[in-house]
What does this fold into?
Amino acid sequence: MKLRMIRRDAASRMAMFGAPVLALLLTCLTSLILFAALGIPAGKALHALLLKPFLSWYSFAEILLKMAPLLLIAQGLAIGFRANVFNIGAEGQFIIGAICASAFPVYYPEGNFPAMLPAMILAGGLGGMAYASIAAGLRTRFGASEILVTLMLSLIAVQILNYLLLGPWKDPRGFNFPQSVRFPENAQLPLLFENVRPNVSLLFALIGSLFAYLMMERHFRGYQLRTAGLAPKAALYAGFSAPRMIWLSLALGGIAAGIAGASEVAGPLGQLQRSVSSGYGYAAIIVAYVGGLRPLGIIASSFLISVLYIGGDSATVSAGLPVAAVEVFQGMLLAFYLLTFTLIRFRLQIERGVPA
Amino acid sequence: MKKPALLTLSGVSKRYGKVQANNAIDLEVHSGSIHAVLGENGAGKSTLMKLIYGVERPDEGTIVWNGTPVSFNRPSDAQALGIGMVFQHFSLFETLNVVQNVSLMIPGRQQDLARKITDLGEKFGLTVDPHAMVHTLSVGERQRVEIIRCLLLDPKLLILDEPTSVLPPQSVQLLFETLRKLQAAGTAILFISHKLEEIRALCDEATVLRGGAVTGRVDPRAQDARALAQMMIGHEMPKVDAARAVTPGSVRLALKGLSHPRASRFGTTLTDINLDLRAGQIIGIAGISGNGQQELAALISGETRAQRKDMVQIMGQNAGLLDAQKRRQLGFSFVPEERLGRGAVPEMSLADNSLLTGHRQGMLKGGFIKRQVERDYTRRCIEDFDVRTPGPDAEAGAMSGGNLQKFILGREIMLNPDVMLVSQPTWGVDIGAATAIRRRLVEMRAQGAAILVISEELEELFEICDSLHVLHEGRLSKALSVADTSAEEVGAYMIGASE
It folds into this structure.
């Protein structure tokens, strides 16, 4: 008996929706075993991980707060991923975006700067774009792998952040903590609802999603990017400029991450701190892939991953789950998703051997 | 009436998904016989050979070897019984020499092997230097290495899959002499081909396949080509009516001293190529693949930029430094030899593949894709070029090679090009589709288009071209008028004997 993978005539719609569900089920099953091995009541752990986030308005709002940067960054990254441009340094672009945005409130701590918020968001986006463009330049000019360059630039970004917070931008009245001044009122994004933390950055993310959808699914530019990713030789054959695809992919990814970074300091943090680098840029890679790199899928996956974040927090507190177990859960989800993803294009056929 | 068969297949069937590749096939092969398996692309020849050689297992039916039923799980089982196979695509390591390649499969010291290779070479006319690096060998020599490698295992049955498709005419004759010597030595040979004349010249038995089933079992020497074609394709061999009445017009494509260094060790350097292609002309470029065909095509299409802008001129303009899209805007279109991944994106629908080069045919508005125009264009292409597919939403990767080629050719022709480059137009395409494709090209010439065809199939070039050049080791021969030249003369240029 042999298991064969047979290519489907067209991508299966059912598998497209079924794959994430199957992946989630497999992840839950495997973690049941894992949690049992850790001696943690599995029911309690899963309840905390998956259900609890929905049981209060406050925790649901926290999901939306997490979702905003993840969604925005993932949409930007997915554009590049579909063109085979692997920007895995969104974390760095996020930090640089946060730094650029913070410059305004740091130098105008009284808020005496006109159009403070638009300037911050714009600076964040441009900063992220400029930072990502370094990788584009090195790739197109010298053929340097953007995977390595963007990753290493992230480490540099962290050091720039450290330098600023321990040196020139340190709050003089901050008891020597590595953080900037508290931002003035007009440097903070308006909240969406009373008493809970989600702010208008969620709208930025949704607008970004709409933009990504129109570009990737409806516009010729997105078609060119997709072609470059699926069949680079076909893109060359058609005469689509490969360097332009690389610049565009990295620039858009950088803008999205930069705006997300700006929104983070102008949102829940309210100042520039070292903790601004909390791994959104890396988590967004998972979000992008779990969403099938499709704009609509990414909206769903960013929500799902946010649930897991909030659920993970609650599970460590209420079910005594170690932090590592939460990370394993998230990693498994990605791995299972990539496994089940092949079912979209292939179907399994069991082949029986013929008795001789 | 004859001695017992060496190999007998009864009722052998094999199915891949929805496709019945082999349906209840009976086949008998005798020692000392050259047995042809004749059929079009897609008739099931390759599948049948894979079953015999143990690459695949049949769903139904039995294989009997020397009177004993056998079941092969892997090719080494078949080899152990004395079955050898030379594939259409060679499996040699280019960076190793001949003996090293052979010793990967055959046990023994390299010195002994080298001596055996020389001996076998002398005995069967398979001369090859055992210490030559494989990448320096010609295609014919590489094929000899493959055959020698099989012979060292002392096979009783040798399977050759389309062995002549890669050879120039002179080498084909050498191969035939070798095969006759093997036959005289008592070896049975299964000779897979779709070329009728070759089979009539060489084989003493033939089994004809069509649509996965046997449609005839004959002595090919006693049949004329028409009867064999009838069995193979179900009707007479179609002919392209090449009305050559067009007076050539202005120069549409000119190559002026085009030279280009090879991109890798295994590429070919192009040297001083000159060519003028005029309106209303089809010019062919003959030659064995690997002599610079790919490099030349990419330089003309713009996938590779030339070193100077005047080396490639399209519609009188210097185009050597332009990208593929800019060259298309000058009125150029191109059908590449790789269909999947270059001429078409496998994961995209046919409609989206129309967009690849057809986007300037009103498919865009403000950069946004007009799906309706894209689909109409695709539907027209499917109808006009007889593409067998469920519709514009079918993915390119799921189509057969011939259908996809018809689609790509149709898409490029529908762009109304002034000058077109077609590379290997009928590789792996069945006879019906190949004839349709050639007819289209001839029609385009009648409408005044200028067409350059790069092809390995000499008959094809003779059928449709006005004149042809031969590409050998990156150099282009002078123009040979099709009316005044012969296959032998072209063949001499193909192996570089006529410089």
Notes: Chain A has a mean pLDDT of 89. The interface with chain B takes residues 6-11, 214, 218-221, 223, 226-227, 230-231, 233-234, 236-241, 345, 349, 353-354, 356 of chain A (CB under 8 Å).
